[in-house]
Amino acid sequence: MDKNKIQALITLLDDPNEEIFSTVEGELLKEEVDIIPDLEKAWETTFDSKHQKRLENLIHNIQFKNVKSGFRSWLANSEDDLLYGAYLVSKYQYPELTYQSINDKINQLRKDVWLELNDHLTALEKVRIINHILFDVHGYTRNNSNFMAPQNSLICDVLDTRKGNPISLSVIYSVIALRLGIPVYGVNLPKNFILAYLDDAADLNTIAQETEMSVLFYINPINKGAVLGRKEIEFFVKQQKLEPKVNYFLPCSNKDIVQRMLNNIYYAYETSGHKEKAAEIQELLSLFGNISG
Q: What residue stretches are annotated with the Protein SirB1 N-terminal domain (predicted)?
């Protein structure tokens, strides 16, 4: 749609006739996010509260459509990029957030770890260095004061505040490790979320067919990267009265991780009474094929 036509449609958004407004809104909703500056400019130049509300709703709906499109594309083509999936989760709350801003902060953390590494370190020594940089130097920790807040699952907020929940801290940890060639992957453990350090010879694509011996040990980012053995995970599963499952001990997919981040946000909005936001998150979850995952 050309610029002049878009401008003409925007001027019709204040039409009192609901049928005309609905038609105009429908046409504008077909457009991409690059029309948002024009909508924002229209909002700034009107003093009619009803018109402003219409513009606000339209801007939000276009931005939400953009996030949905991003998730569809990620699920179809780019699921191997965990950080981008986590970025899309944040983009729901912060529509103008850029991937570059997230990526730059992760790369700085990666650089800080890389400076301390060398080729002769054991797996445990590498983990101790990551733990030192993340938890001692940069002060990443669990958000104890507001653990259920949706911000704990938004990677941009966690990178800014250095406080998060098990899954967001695990995402940051895993992405940094993998960018350094260290095989650390997420494990979708119920009522927690941990990481598995794989044997270098393990192939993640066939890990489900392998035995748990492919995992050298586990890492608990919510407890400053404490190293755990299989028996400690078994004890946790028993303590939580969970039926033991193989997938509690093996790496999960990036799709599973991002889906769980969205689930956390959904429950945060649902329990705090933000029903509209919860419904939109549920709409995003429906793209994953199982909203309860």
A: 101-263
